[in-house]
Amino acid sequence: MEGIAAIRARVQAIQSQFGMNGAGGVLGGHDASTSSEAPTASTSTDNFAAALANAQGVDPSVPTSSGKLNKAGVDPTTWARDFLTKAGLPITAENVRAVEAWQQAEGTAAKFNPLATTQGGYAGSTNFNSVGVKNFVSYQDGIDANAKVLNNGLYPNIIAAFKKGDSALDVALAIKNSPWGSGALVEKIVRGQS
Hints:
CATH class of the largest domain: Mainly Alpha
Order of helices and strands: HHHHEEHHHH
Structural class: mainly alpha
Distance between the termini: 60 Å
Number of strands: 2
CATH architecture of the largest domain: Orthogonal Bundle
Helix content: 40-55%
Shape: globular
């Protein structure tokens, strides 16, 4: 019985973490061990989804798609969300706005590479230009390569601004003050949106 008690304690801890209603939460208030009634599903699935998104650092109000493709052949909003996820950074409206502005600043047609990374090591990638910006053969390779570069140790100021998640301008200023080649253009774009 000690194992069941431990499981119940863990379930209650998880339920309290997600703001569920204490004793029972998703079981509709029934304690399955003391009741002969079948547990009922909670009607608060929206609350659970919101709590889960919050726990994952995802702002559910952030759009998932812009409905258009940029020169690199990706939807800027979807790509921004996927990039932030792969890089281990919170998905907030401001972070997505910053990544979209960053893509716009780069303005590249490098396939699946809207931030114009030169990161190599992906099968089938080719040089887009003489600087070595890569064309990738898949969407995922572009996400992986850009996230890898951001986390290579050269961009702690950009990562710190993204981790705060509350200011596209702070991210733009961090990009400006980093070795990434975008310079002040991301800042100019973000300021122009305000």
